[in-house]
Amino acid sequence: MAYWLFKSEPDVWSWEQQVARGAAGEEWNGVRNYMARNNMRAMALGDQGFYYHSRSGLEVVGIVEVCATSHPDSTTDDPRWDCVDIRALRPLARPVTLEAIKADGRLSEMVLVKNSRLSVQPVTPAEWQIICELGGTTP
DNA sequence: GCCAACGTTGGC
DNA sequence: GCCAACGTTGGC
After folding, report:
1. Rounded CA gap, A87 and A27, in Å?
2. Protein A116 CA to nucleic acid C11 C1', in Å?
């Protein structure tokens, strides 16, 4: 199983809204970036991801699971853009802030730190472990 | 709200 | 295929 990180501005689509969709999940649509799309195409059913609030929030707030693999993005007719569906699994006991991530030397290679503009990004098993620890949840 | 960094577009 | 111009993202 692989690990990922999904970024969303809480003003646009928040963790609370994601939780409200329940087990059915929600299409992670609207991505118009090739790298982010390629990451979604590489996802398998059951892959897990962190849910990160960008712009306002700046913290990892929960854990999601891929519940549908890559398919055409329903918000466009452009065949270039695919997306997956994700559903909320559980919140972190303590949100892990960007500040805390930057302060932890073990996380200095995270894509979140190195390329803050990429909205769907891979997370290594080691990074997953550390952030779960910081967030007070079992991986 | 600002602006730096980045990705995308389009003229050449 | 290059690169300037433009639009968007996201931390501050």
Report:
1. 9
2. 9
